[in-house]
Amino acid sequence: MKQFLTAVVLVGFGAVSAAAAGPDISKRQAQGTVPEVMDALVAAVDGAGATVFARIDHAKGAQDAGMTLAPNQVLVFGNPVLGTPAIQDDALAGLYLPLKVLVYEDAKGQVWLAYENPAETLGDMQGIGDDAGYIGKMQGALDKLTSDAAGG
Question: What CATH class has 19-150?
Answer without folding.
Answer: alpha beta
